[in-house]
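In this section we walk through a basic example: taking a raw amino acid sequence and producing a predicted 3D structure, encoded as discrete structure tokens. The instruction is simple. Fold the sequence below.
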Amino acid sequence: MSRIPKQKGLNGWHLGISSLETFMRKFLFLAFTSLAVTASATDYPVSNVAAFTEAAGQAKAGDRIILTDGIWENARLRIRAAGTASSPITIKAQTPGKVILTGDSRISLAGEHLVVDGLWFQNPTGTEAIELRVDYDELAN
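The resulting token sequence is shown next.
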């Protein structure tokens, strides 16, 4: 084991900071920083409109609402939420292309930094499959 060299300071002798101590400080900083970032994001797996509506009401920046694979017939999905540029709220298919919205299905989005990924609208019968608003005065940005 090596000795830590002493350095002379203005008021006498003191110990220098070892490389192990520096490493531990950096490691603990990175560990706590990454825990804070990952702990804040939540995945909400949903399999029906009621579960989607509940997840949409709770979603915060960085969260993901994951629609389970299958046919979603006449599903009216609405979300009013705000993500951030670095942590958007994502609405996504469990498997891209395997969530199939049919009939009078639609997704209505209002808020900021919302991402929709992997949904497939097949043979829509409604007038609008994707609305960038939840009503006439609440638009998505």
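Looking at the output, two observations stand out. Residues 20 and 31 are 16 Å apart (CA to CA). Confidence is low (pLDDT under 50) at residues 34-39. In the next section we compare this with other chains.
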